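Lecture 7 notes. Example A: sequence first, then its structure tokens.
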Amino acid sequence: MQYDFDEIIDRRGTGALKYEALLPRWGRDDLIPLWVADMDFKTPPFIMEAIRRRCEHEILGYTVKPRAFFDAIRNWVGRRHGWEVRASEIGFAPGIVPGISSAIQCFTEPGDKIMIQPPVYHPFAMIIRENGREIVNNPLLLENGRYRMDVDHMREAVRGCRMFILCNPHNPGGRVWSPEELRRVAEICAESGTLVVSDEIHADLALPGHRHTVFATVSEQARMNSVTYMAPSKAFNVPGLGSSYLICQNPALFGKYQSFVSGRELAEGHVFAYEGFISAYSGPEGEEWLKQALDYIQENIRYIDRELRRRMPKIKAMLPDASYLVFLDCRELNLPQKELAEFFVDGARLALNDGSIFGKEGEGFMRLNAGCRSTSWKRLIRTVASISIRHRIKTFFVFLRCMFPAWKQVLMNFAVARRFSCPGAFLSP
């Protein structure tokens, strides 16, 4: 079956965060929402059909994990990632972040140190702080447009840390960590007695030419000293189902965790969680839909990169190995972070994630969601490349430097520059 990813799906009025939160967050609702990490593609029809079938039953009662839940996960991670797991090693989580928060409460104590690698998914720092633990940073190094781990710094920083939260693949940078990198992490954390909690929600979004490596599979040390969180949420665009899972192959760790979440009534999903799960992971439909979606996303990313290079070379797209999220390196604009955000919001009318939320290492960056219709990108690039210059003269000149690296070209187009005082004036791309 050929899926139509260009179909327009109106999400307003559905409680969609990326749309409904525009006005309270930015004070306007005329922005192109490219900030929240869900896709604007229609949820796969086989998932929707499974949910409809469940709705036909007229009792929505308490639930329990069916056998098909375990079978679907075992088969999926076996096919996709070459990871053999048993049903007794699989648990339910109502979401990745709630799951990691539960792991923090289960395996650490208030005041304990927990290590992260900024710039990284911002809820990590939030749940560490909110649970009364101390953040230890092991910043990533940016080299030639790609992040790498600072292993030497990690060896020192991890001492005394009870836990390390690994983002695998990395968000927002999109790195698929190599088996060699992950083995070094496993060795360092095992030596320091630091439990690895691996967030692998983007595992199934490895783009063509890249392959995700599950942390727990790289060595015996990794397998026995880790808890892995996964979900169909990102891959199949069903975050609203609140259905995630954890896999832990250390019986003692898994038993302790299950006792903790069971005692807080967090071990079971709601009535639709399992149906969506099973339909996504079972049968050839899921594999085929995901393949087509990834091909489409890859083309979106290539288009963004190509057009930024051509039209605005001072904004560079960090090409991800996995995911539909693109980290934009805007440091050559030489704007303070507040003005950088204004540049996109007030000028380009784009709602993006401010890079600083991922840590101070994210300053000068913005995160963009490429999981939408390709026609949106033509509109986006045109919009960015024709930023209204009525907001401020400074932004106008910054934009000119982006568009025309050679100032000779600016002078040749000075007639355009004179239009800055006219309300609604734009530069043509």
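Example B, a different protein, same format:
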Amino acid sequence: MILPPELFSRFVLGNKYIIQKPTDKQARFLVRLEKEAFYGGSAGGGKSSALLAAALMFVDIPGYSAIIFRRTYRDLALPGALMDRANEWLAGTDARWKAEDKTWIFPSGASITFGYLDAPNDKYRYQGAEFQAIFFDELTQIRENDYRYLFSRLRRLKDSSIPLRVRSASNPGGVGHTWVKNRFIVSKAADRIFIPAGLADNPYLDQDSYRQSLMALDPVSREQLLNGDWDIEVQGNMFKRHWFEPVDMPDLNSKKVRYWDLAATSHTGDNDPDYTVGLKLGYSNGRYTIEDIRRVRLEPAEVERLIRNTAQMDGKQCQIFMEQEPGSSGKALIDHYARRVLHGFRFKGVKPTGSKIVRAQPVSAASEQGLIRIVKSDWNLPFFEEIELFPNGTHDDQIDAFSGAFSCLNPNSAKNLSLSDASGYGGIPM
């Protein structure tokens, strides 16, 4: 099921809006006529250009209407993302940008619209629309039920020659990894096809520098993004205890933070709730040291006393951070600690972003690179047992505190000690 050569020449090679000659892998993707086609593999494989070219193929045909989805509008508007790339290709042509609708209009009357699927109900905004082609960029970020629902928007007039198409692109990984893999890599359905593409398939990219960037990722992400590995998943592969160099003493001159992750549930009876964890991390000369971990199950009043006493022991040179839960209750708790428990100390509440796995990726990469030491102590074993099972273990409180401390202390982190991402209190300037 492929487009005949003369039509491929007309709709792709002779298309004035497709300003970049397709690579071999992109051409294999563009020529397919199956209802569903998926272009995926390693990062840098040219998937964004492949999707945009696919969307532009039939814009000279009156009545053609297409839509391109990303998970959020912010994702759509990022520099280098599809909306930005479309502007690079189409600005200065006879196509017209209708900003209020996020739509390109072509002289034929054809249109390409950009949409997003952030909230579960966002898909219903397209309930009355009809498209001959639907595109999903970074499909593993899209919910499966959203993908399936939007098939109902795919239709054409009885005498139309425009092929109905759903085209997607993505790297392995992300919340939708499993369903995308099952649908396109595992399944052998006759009406869908998978076109694998990797870094080596994109001659327009500086492959060496991009490869170096990908090599700095954590082991799982590196295999997914560098090698396009759909089989490797996060199954306790993010941390190994031999990555951590044991040391006898912390560096007394290092910059230090203590990050607290509070348990939400008290220990009662046979339940196995999370722990309250406070991890102290030092940084000096490009290396980090886990200096101390407090891990307890206590009542709220006892937790407050522990945190206060630990702050006094650490000294005021050690900045204190605490994970802030969403909503007014989370803000109220941080305010309580700032005013009543840790007044006089350098203290902030931090709002975490992304999943636990995403937050753990930077510190996983740093650990594998040998950048993190650990002070020898009896708390080492429980720490190693937890991190080697993450994210499939029963508990992840130490991981949360470790990731949080690293994010706050890492000099290369965009969020490092940022007032925009943290609420600062305590009476002492941050």
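Note on Example B: The domain at 5-226 is CATH 3.40.50.300 (Rossmann fold). The first helix runs from residue 5 to 13.
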